[in-house]
Amino acid sequence: MDVDMDHYGVLGLPSGEEGAQLSEKEISKAYRAKALELHPDKRPDDPDAHANFQKLKSSYEILKDKKARKLFDDLLRVKREQVLRRSQQDSKRRKMVSDLEERERAAFAPDPAAKAKNEEERILRKLREEIERIRAMHANKGTSPASSKGQAASEGKDRKRSGGVGLDKEKVLKVSWEIGGPDYTVERLKELFSVFGEVEDVVTRKKRSALIVMASKDAAVAATRTVCGDLSNPLLVVPLQPVVAPDFPSVNKPVEKDLCNDLVGAGYQDFEDSVMKKLQKAAARQKS
After folding, report:
1. Per-residue pLDDT tens for 160-173?
2. Which one of 31, 56, 181, 273 has the fewest beta carbons within 10 angstroms of its own beta carbon?
3. Cβ atoms 207, 268 nearer than 8 A
4. Whole-number Å distance between alpha carbons of 95 and 99
C-alpha cells in the first residue's frame, strides 16, 4: 500500500475535510460503482486492469477500517497544514523581500530637501553670472549724453564731497587713426591696450579717435613707447598729459601739446573736454 496515495480519490470521492465527513455507507457505494467500472473482466484489453482493481480494493480496505481511516485523515490534515504554512511563509518572505527592496530604493533615492537646495544654489549662481554680465555690458557702453545731462547736478555734489578729485590725466591716452583704413571698436581697442596693463575705460567718437583710460601711469607710459594696431592702419598714441620728471617740469610740454593738436585735429579739443567731464564724473561716482 502506498501511504502517499489519496485513497478517497481512488474511489472517486472528495478528499480532505470533505472526505473525512463521508459515512461508511457512502464509501461502500462509491467502491461498488468503481469496482464495476475497473473489473478486469470489463477491461480485457487493458494490461493494467488487474493492478488498478487491486489498488481500488486496497484503498477501500483502508477507508473501511476506522483506525486506518482516522490515521489517513490525520495524515491528510498534516499535509494540508504544511502546504498552508509554506504558503504563508512564502507570502511573508515575499513581503520581506518587497519591504527590503523598498527600503533600499528609499535609501538610494535623492533627498527632496537636498535636491531643492541644490536647485536653489544652481539658480542663484546663474543669476549672479547674469548680473555680472549685465554690469560689464553697461560699463563698456560708457555714459550716454542724455544721462549725463540728467545727472549733472548730483554729480557736481559728488565731486564736492570727494574733495574735487578728478580723473588723473597722466593715465589717459589719446588715440587716432586714418579714416580710410579699417575702423577700431571699443572691444578691439581694449584688447590692444590690455597688453600694457589694465584698461579702465575706452571712449570713442565718430572721427576715428578715442580716449583710453589706463589703470596706472606706468601702463600709460608703456603704451606710448610702441606702435600698436593693424599694420594697414596703425594707431597714433599720445598721452593726454605726459608724465614729467620732477627735476624737469617744463621739458617737452609745449611740443607734446602741439603734437597732440596736429595728430587729432583742431576739432578734437571740444570732444576731449566733453569726454573728460564724463570720465571725471565716473571716477567721482566710484570713489563716493
Report:
1. 443 344 568 888 88
2. 273
3. yes
4. 6
State which H helix or E strand residue 214 sits in.
strand 209-214
Residues in the chain with pLDDT < 70? 1-3, 142-167, 180-181, 206, 225-227, 243-276, 283, 286-288
Q: How far apart are CA 53 and CA 39, in angstroms?
A: 6
pTM exceeds 0.70 for this model: no
Rounded CA gap, 161 and 172, in Å?
24
Distance, in Å, from the CA atom of 4 to the CA atom of 22, rounded to the nearest integer, reads 20
Choose among 38, 97, 34, 21: nearest CA to 60: 34
Residue 286 CB partners (closer than 8 Å, separation 6+): none
| CB burial readout 238-249, b (16+ within 10 A) else e | bbbbbeeeeeee
Residue 172 contacts residue 213 (beta carbons within 8 Å): yes
DSSP structure string for 235-276 = PEEEESS----TT-TTTTHHHHHHHHHHHH-TTHHHHHHHHH
